Amino acid sequence: MHILTIIKSIAYQRLIGTALFVILLPTYSFAAITADEVEQAISPGAVYLDFVSEDSSYVSSTNPNISMVTNAVDWGWPDGSDNEVSVPSDEFGEGNIFDDKSNPSSDFTATVSGLTPGSIAEVFVLNVIKTNSYDFSWARGQSAMILEITEEGIGGDAPAIIEQEFNEESLTFSDRTHQHNGAAFDNEGNLSTSGTQIIDLPNYLVGGDYIRFANNARDNNPYSAFVEADGITTWYLLVDNRLDGAAGNKNSPNNTDPVLGGTLQWIIDDGWQRVNTNISPNGQADYTGVDEGGGGFGPGQGLNQFYSVYSLTSDSVTVNGQGIGGSNMISLVTQGKMITVNSIKEGGLPIVEDNGAGPDSYAISIGYFNADEDGSINVRIGKGIPNEQGSRTELDGLVIIPPADSEIPIQQFTATDEKIAPGQSVTLKWIISPESTFANISPGNIDILAKTGADGKGSIELNPKLETEYTLTVNTPEEEAVTDSVVVDVALIGYFTAEPLVIDSGEDTTLSWLVREDASISIPPINWVVPPDPEGTVSVSPETTTKYILTASAGGKIESAEVLINVLAPPSNGGNFAEPIEGWDYAFNGDVDPLSVEWNHDNGSDQWDSSDLDSGAPGGAAILNENGDNFLRLQDTGNPTNHGFGDPGSNRKVYFTKDLTTILSDNYSPLVDGITLNFRARVPVPDNILPFDDAHPAGGNISEWTASGDGYAIHDGGKGTFGIRDSLSGQLISFTLSTDPGPGSDYSEGIGLSMNRLNGENPSAEVDANDGSGETNLLPIEPLNWNDFWITIEADTSGSGTHRADIYMNGNSAPSSYFLTAGTGSDAGTTYMAMGLGATPQSGAVDIDFFNIKEGIHIPTNNIPFQIIDISYSDNGISISWPSRAGEAFLIEKSEDAIFWEEMDDSYPASDNSEVTEFLDEETTEFRNLLYRVSRATE
Fold first, then answer.
1. pLDDT value at position 777?
2. What is the DSSP letter of 21?
3. Residue 13 has what pLDDT?
């Protein structure tokens, strides 16, 4: 399914995670750890500093020259309980540490002393977390006011201007109307001036003082500006992505960082650090946008160029020019608001990981800090945002990584990835003595001294073809031939893709692959005449939606990857009802991945990991085939987060929405003006043929999926398996196939088709299966069978509820009618149709053959093949009858020999009061034989 290419070993039935391989730092399975163990888990030379109460000082146990003092006021938990995880050296209130959620006065400043003046240290915050969704905020000291700017080399250009309150639409230059705006990215996460993924200006910039330089000064060489603030602050330098300082031109791509060096060498020499606060897609560093026309309003609007963001902490800075024309001049901003850190578990380094029912501990980097002339840095820690479960996050201390120790030849030698894909690069990183006289990496005999900074830290990017052991050798004045090694493996499969992923029946698509150069491959059912190359393509034309699996093998190892080709079939006529006269406004045929036809699962009711039922976390979405028919199976196994699968992507809920803004008429309000739904579905049961995952209930043990099937229930303000949300009226009505409750925290209203409860004449959040008020609405049916539903929803005029739903089933013309109350739940700001299983406490599975909608109220007709069903004779002539629907028109012809046909009526109207239309031919006496032909009229 839109399922990102999944790579897995055949030795395992399930892949947990994606094809991303990382070196895991040491982790611990016990609750309490020491300061030494925290330091070892993060980096050699790391210094742990515990948060302590107001005006108390904490001295490092491993480096007594380094200490920290805070201005935090001592407090404990609101309920008086002690923390569960802390280092034994914790001196804060008999073991209590910060609860950065419950106490509104938790903003405080930590001052670290004893560092080398002017040195650069990386700073981590140690977090003890009870949940993955908790935030905290921080800043490099307080925001500051810019006092003065002194420029040299300005020539005749406009002088720079000091401004306040940096924000969206702030003017960029003193001689232009360019504006600062948030950045934009395309759907693949690349910077794009027309991108739809909009990122606001970073919080740390907003509200700060800033400099508007003259854009005409961009090519002045030399040029410099001295800028002074009223105290130590963090300065942010914005640099045009197009600048290539080494080449002295503006030919660097606009969607990547500028090339430093050359005319931009001063950025490196002065210690400016690239800023990455995880606000950009795909782990990219932070960017801002430039609206050169000055007419765009809001982030991501009117963009022409992009800036990369660099930082430096000091009370003053000197910036130089770029000396390159045709580009945008640099910009300079001081610290603005606090920086919010979220996704602590996702972005942090594990210290205590997967600690069962107990809390975990992670350290997250908040960047590089410059020590002032006294060897001090200041970090301000602010309040976090409570998560929806109300659980807590504790901030236990800071971890400082100062420059390398000159007496230790090799402090650290690591690889960014333990395993990489073919063609992918790996970055080797090291911390060695700044006094090293020789530093070499083999194989390759690579001299790395030129790539090592004054702090002893450096890195290099390499492209190993096969598994490689890299050895670092270092000489210092005191020691020679000190070595350390790291092994980087190369996966068998680099990629396996298809283009296009969605085709019409009868069309071709191209499979493409890259495998390791020594690997052999197979892609059933393709039979190769000659073994394929490690990188290649092949054209295929599947008749139905098909999963292709590539298997690669080499050196006794086997890996596989899969890709799903979505084949769009003609509109389904397999239901028991004929489609409306003018067709459906939208039809989903259940034969392709919903994302391939512009459904979306980026909503609060979804945690799908994009996998099918054979891979990824338990449950998911898959296109299956039974008796030649494709359909979509969705399975929510309960709550896999209780069984070791983390968010995002635990599959504890799987929920898709389809925006109807461009599908329905302008300003159409489906739950006010009326809507017609048609879907065919069932609750599946295990059959040992089609895939099913085990149940992972929110409360209880993993078990086989129940043989009697597990349906779903209406939940969270009217959400269900099939739903319509009307953004204009703020209402939601849903339907779901329900069974007896499944394991764990499952609940149900009975066996059948469940819908919103009847609970008054106004939309309400109390319309769910587990709500105590109102009346149950349940159509008793057998949900394990395929059932074809045609449902019309219109406003209730009886005064019972908000709406009436007429439910027709399996071709029957008599509906079952229910009065119900619309819910208030929502997962998007637009009018949408929804299908899925979107509740964390619930478990369930559903098979969906199709799901169609039509604006307005449309009475169904049976999907009987069109034919004359009756001929009768009378003194008045011959009468013929056939099935019809109100509003149709017919061409009626007769013939004696079936060769020449006489047209009797080219637009005969269908009966308005019956599903059968009758036509009387009164001119029959002159004929010995008569044949009649009836067809639907065409315009």
1. 96
2. -
3. 29
The tokens describing 504, both together, are 């019409």
900, 862 Cβ separation under 8 angstroms: no
pLDDT at position 53, please?
66
Q: What is the pLDDT of residue 129?
A: 60
CATH level 3 topology of 590-855: Jelly Rolls (2.60.120)
Residue 869 CB neighbours (<10 A): 11
DSSP state of 695: B
Strand partners, 233: 314
Regions in the chain scoring below 70 on pLDDT: 1-33, 53-54, 73-107, 128-142, 337-343, 345-347, 353-360, 383-394, 454, 569-574, 744, 864-866, 938-939
- Compute the 3-state secondary structure of the chain and give helix, strand, coil in percent, each to the nearest 5: 5, 40, 55
In the chain the first and final C-alpha atoms are separated, in Å, by: 41
pLDDT at 530: 84
Residues forming a β-bridge with 537: 512
Which tokens hold the place of 922?
Answer: 């009164």
Alpha-carbon 926 to chain mean position: 75
- Report the 10 Å Cβ neighbour count for 132: 20
* pLDDT value, residue 817: 94
Whether the domain at 6-19+492-568 and the domain at 590-855 fall into the same CATH topology: no
Q: For residue 8, what pLDDT is reported?
A: 25
The DSSP H or E segment spanning 390 is none
Q: Which of 583, 579, 570, 587 is nearest to 862 (CA)?
A: 579
The pLDDT of residue 861 is: 79
Is pTM beyond 0.90? Reply is: no
Cβ atoms of 355 and 297 closer than 8 Å: no
What pLDDT score does 585 carry? 96
Which pLDDT score is estimated for 337? 66
Output the CA–CA distances (angstroms, integers) from residue 529 to 521, 522, 552, 560, 721, in the order listed: 13, 12, 17, 21, 47
Compute the distance between CA of residue 381 and CA of residue 109 in angstroms, rounded to an integer: 6
**Alpha carbon distance 289, 255 (integer Å):** 11
What pLDDT is attached to residue 4?
28
Question: How far are the Cα atoms of 114, 304, 351 from residue 577, in angstroms, in the given order?
Answer: 80, 53, 60
Superfamily of domain 6-19+492-568, CATH level 4: SoxY domain (2.60.40.2470)
Cis peptide before 402 (omega within 30 of 0): no
Quick one: 22 exposed, middle or buried, by C-beta within 10 A (0-12, 13-18, 19+)?
exposed
Cβ 817 vs Cβ 806: under 8 Å: yes
Output the CA torsion sign for 195, 199, 200, 205.
negative
Q: pLDDT (tens digit, 9 = 90+) per residue, 27-41?
A: 333 334 677 777 877
Please give the pLDDT value at position 80. 37
Q: Where exactly are the structural domains of the chain?
A: 6-19+492-568, 35-135+343-365+378-401, 146-336, 410-479, 590-855, 870-936
State how far the Cα of 519 lies from the Cα of 494, in Å rounded to an integer.
11
CA 691, chain centre distance (Å): 26
Return the H-helix or E-strand segment holding 358: none
Amino acid present at 742? G
- In 3D space, the residue among 114, 184, 628, 757 whose CA is nearest the CA of residue 398 turns out to be 114
DSSP string, 183-223: EEE-TTS-B-TT-SEEEPPPTTTTT--EEE--GGGGG-SS-
pLDDT score at 721: 98
Q: What is the pLDDT of residue 37?
A: 75
User: In the beta sheet, which residues pair with residue 854?
Assistant: 676
Q: What is the pLDDT of residue 224?
A: 95
Each residue of 488-525: b (16+ CB within 10 Å) or e? Answer: bbbbbbbbbebeebbbeeeeebebebbbbeebebbbee
Token output for 26: 């040491």
Question: Residue 809 has which token pair?
Answer: 């089933």
What is the pLDDT at residue 98? 39
Tokens 């048609």 locate to: 678
- The conformation of residue 578, written as its DSSP 8-state character, comes to P
**Per-residue pLDDT at 391:** 45
pLDDT at 21: 25
